[in-house]
């Protein structure tokens, strides 16, 4: 496997870039692992890495539906979502940081007049908690949430909404993601895809790189 450089990627003819948040531009996998562990083990369900892999691209609503269906939980999905948000909030506020080099790379895009979007299955209120430290609203031209389109990354609507807001064509838009399902969805609508090596110890970067047009190891 050969890692691409950001310089090589910038040399391609792109007019817009879409970024994932968790894992891709911010170290958060350890946080969601803690949330998942606490949630499932409090219900007597042993946590496994496979649970994290399944939940990662689904977002809160589909994730709650999956948990209820898979483990026959007699619970209200809205209450599960609230519990996840509260657990996530306590970990997110003080510990989430952007990965080294991300801000500098996005500033390079701005200098080249390349528009940017954040596309995430995270809830808007969770990322709003990070605004005082990370300034995401000024870093990106737009932020698109799964809640905005009513679907997660197993369907293309999140990315299509980002394209519409950026007024960009898919074939000239680069997508940075760190999970196979998201890369595959991006490929399905002709986005240029880049796999991002992340802090998730269960990520198979070799497998991911085979799905993507580019692969990067870090942001610097």
UniProtKB/TrEMBL annotation:
Keywords for the protein's UniProt record, in alphabetical order? Hydrolase
Q: Which domain of life is it from?
A: Bacteria
Hydrolase among the record's keywords? yes
Any one GO MF term held by the record is: phosphatase activity
Q: Which InterPro entries match?
A: HAD-like_sf, HAD-SF_hydro_IA, HAD_2, HAD_sf, PGP-like_dom2
Mention any Pfam family matching this sequence: HAD_2
Q: Which NCBIfam families match?
A: HAD-SF-IA-v3
**Full protein name:** HAD-superfamily hydrolase, subfamily IA, variant 3
